Amino acid sequence: MRGRILLVIGFGVGYVLGAKAGRQRYEQIAGAADKVWNSPTVKKQRHEVQHFVETQAPKLVEQAKDVAGETIDKVGKRRSRGGDHTTDIARPEDVS
């Protein structure tokens, strides 16, 4: 109970202090964040990450499909050994 009261008080203090800082401080913080986001170093890193994702994502999807298929095969074999010969598990290529 004491923790909840402190949490509510903390939110209240944060709200009051934030309201006192006002729009001017918000604009100042937003401008600084924009400056960092558009700096040449950060831009370069963003483009490198984007390129990495674009080139590696298809490979990762294929690996995930392969692993899922192998897992489904293993589960199917376990089920058939247990006496239940039906394997109604959808394979990744069936879902696409």
Concise synopsis of the structure shown:
This protein has 96 residues and is mainly alpha-helical. It is 85% helix and 0% strand.
Could you walk me through the main structural features you see in this protein, from its secondary elements to its overall organization?
With 96 residues, the protein is mainly α. Helices cover 85% and strands 0% of the residues. The protein contains 3 helices and no strands. It is flat, with a radius of gyration of 27 Å.
Q: Report the order of strands and helices.
A: HHH
Q: Roughly how many Å is the radius of gyration?
A: 27 Å
Largest sheet: none
- Quantity of strands, as a count: 0
How helix-rich are the residues, as a percent range? over 70%
Put simply, the count of helices is 3
Taking the alpha carbons of the first and last residues, their distance comes to 50 Å
- Percent strand equals under 5%
Q: What class, by secondary structure content? A: mainly alpha
Low-pLDDT residue intervals, each spanning 5 or more residues: none
What's the rounded overall pLDDT mean? 81
CA-based shape: flat
